[in-house]
Structure formats: C-alpha cells, structure tokens
Fold these 2 entries.
Entry 1:
Amino acid sequence: GAVVSQHPSRVICKSGTSVKIECRSLDFQATTMFWYRQFPKQSLMLMATSNEGSKATYEQGVEKDKFLINHASLTLSTLTVTSAHPEDSSFYICSATIWGTSYEQYFGPGTRLTVT
Amino acid sequence: DAKTTQPPSMDCAEGRAANLPCNHSTISGNEYVYWYRQIHSQGPQYIIHGLKNNETNEMASLIITEDRKSSTLILPHATLRDTAVYYCIVRASSRQLTFGSGTQLTVLP
C-alpha cells in the first residue's frame, strides 16, 4: 500500500518550452502533496505544499508563476515548469500524505528533467 | 523543526550491523524522529520513526536516548542494496519533512 507514482520518469525539453509532471497516489487519498527539487549531490529542497482544491503554498524563493501546481483531486497533483531554462534541470520528487492519519509522507520515484 | 546533525559518510561491511548516529539536541517534546533513505536517483523511502521509545520493524531498529537528544538507526545485517543516503529528520506530526544533508552509507562486499 501507500504507492505514489510520477510521470514521466525522465523528460528532455528545449529551453523556453513548458513541461508537466504528474504525481499520483495509487491506492490512497492524499490530503496534501509536496513537491521537492534535488540538484546533483545536494539534498531535497521543498518547493511547495499542495492541498486538494486550494492554492499551493510556495517556499521562499520559489516562483509560483514559473512552477504551476494544480491539485485537482485527492489522487493527482501536477507540477508544470513554464518557460524552462537549463538551470531548471533537476530531479523533481513529489510526496503525499494519507488522509486522516499521522501525516506520514510517501514519496514518488522522481522525475529527471533536462532542459537543453 | 529541530535541526539534526549526521556524519557525512560511513562504511559498513556486508552482513554486519550498520549503526547510523543522529544528533538532535534541540528537539521539542512533540517532535518525532524519522529516518528515510534515498538510493541513487530514486525517491526517498520511509524506514522508521519514533517519539520516545525504541522502535523496530522489518527494515531497522531505532534507538532514541532517554533525553531524546540523539538517536541511532540500526540496520542489523547490511546488504549491498542498503547503500544509500540516510536522512534523520525531526518534525512535529503535522509539519512537512525538511531534509538535511544525510549520511552516505556505503556497504562494502
């Protein structure tokens, strides 16, 4: 149980284009989903917290107009990187907490984004 | 959330116990100790968590000192597949996880 998937696992896009990453909770309903970013040889950095049906809360320094988050249902959150640039190349990881429990976080496998 | 301190790297022989320390001297009474690990290019994996008492599951044991200022994660019989970065995180139950730099554990054949 408590499986989180991400799609795609890897994506390469050209500079200036937008790319959407999906995060799904497969066997549970997620009250909250989190989006993290991880650069090579660094730790995970929280980008934003996403609650179903409401606007995401972004961490300081993360541009909300560049990283669009939509959490339309209890099983799906999407992160869209708009007008991507090479410096946005990173490993993007989502996690989800289970509805009505002790807020345990379960992580997806991550999406490797490369912007050329 | 309380800050944690972990050694940057450790080695362990395959089949032996791996003991990973974590200091969290500023932990508050309502904060839990969580351990996650991240194998290269994968998402983090939950290992174990505890509040005051020692905990054990099929993956590991968590030993928390009586004053709760430090803890040790024990992998009883390390395998090559346990090579990963191990993160010790302290947080209150309703807060998000904040990752530090973790400990790179390398299990040697």
Note: The CA atoms of residues 67 and 81 of chain A lie 5 Å apart.
Entry 2:
Amino acid sequence: SQKIEQNSEALNIQEGKTATLTCNYTNYSPAYLQWYRQDPGRGPVFLLLIRENEKEKRKERLKVTFDTTLKQSLFHITASQPADSATYLCALGGGADGLTFGKGTHLIIQP
Amino acid sequence: DTAVSQTPKYLVTQMGNDKSIKCEQNLGHDTMYWYKQDSKKFLKIMFSYNNKELIINETVPNRFSPKSPDKAHLNLHINSLELGDSAVYFCASSPQGMGNTEAFFGQGTRLTVV
C-alpha cells in the first residue's frame, strides 16, 4: 500500500535560518506533489505544487524539490520567521481519488 | 467571502444518533471531497465527488454517506454515530480531481461523540 513519511516529530529552527522538511514515499508514483500548511483549528492551506517532470519550484521564501528516483520531496523555508510556525503537510496526487496526505511535520521557529 | 464553508464548526452528540455536516463551495469547482483528521492529525480522504461520480475510500463505513444536491454542495451524513467517529472532518474542493490542482479546504467540523 502507499506510504508517505514525514518527520512526525516537531522540528525546531532558529529564526532567520532555513527550515528543511522531508517527505518520502513508497509504493507510489505520483504525477504531482503538493505542500500545505495547517495552523491549529484551521483547514490546510495550499502552498506549492510540483509536477513529476519538474525538479524544483519556488515561491517567495519557499522552495520545493521533487526527486522521483529517490521518491522524495524537500520543502525549504528560507529566512524563517516565527509566523512560519505551523504543521506542514505533504500530499501526493495523480490518482482518481485526489490527494493522499502525509501526517505532517510540526515546525517551530524560535525567535 | 469564504471559498469553502462547512457547518457546524462544532458538533457534540450522543452515540447512536444520526447527524449531518453541510459543505458549500463558491469557487465553481467540479470536484469536492470529505477528509477525516483523527486525534493523531492524520488527514485521510473519505470521499471524492466529481460530476456525479462518487469515489469511496473502501475503509469508510457505510454509515457515512455523502449527498450532493448540486455541484456547489457536498453534505456528509453519518448514521448510528460511534465513539470512534470523533474527529475533525474537512470538506474541500478543487477545479479537477486527480490531485493536479490545489485543493481548498473548509475550516473543519469538530465532531465529538459521547
């Protein structure tokens, strides 16, 4: 069965540093990979989508890479700020049933 | 002007009851979803609904049934509620199914079964 692994424990990063989150998957060949942000008590909010034929995607301070050989995506937040503290979810797409989510990584940016 | 809205935000009910959660999207999207987020924060798809085609996650009990009166609405009906149904339920929509476009989520409905 499909399996998506994200760092399930909290990731503590000092303000101003680059935060790097990892998403690994097995038994799946997604055509698309998405990253979402979820704050407590709120629904997930879309951040970035990357296609299988793209190596890298950027949006402001965010960067996503997608390595279909390693079956891995890396999500980077540069110049991190306390406001970036949230849970970040990796999601795979390409099947008829929409997105399959990982359990998320809780990111804490410390001032 | 909320894109995906669901009601109620909180729902507390007793075991054995039947309840419904409503969802509406004003984005003109073709596909709507219901997701369940359990206490461990794992977000799991329950249903995908696209142009009257319903795709059901096989692990969802048949006590759960989605109903779509029109393209902008996908309501979730739950019969004979059980303690294990307690979770946060999210409605979402996207322009297309297949995961190739961003999905927009509602704010969630926290269901507590006592």
Note: Chain B has a mean pLDDT of 91.
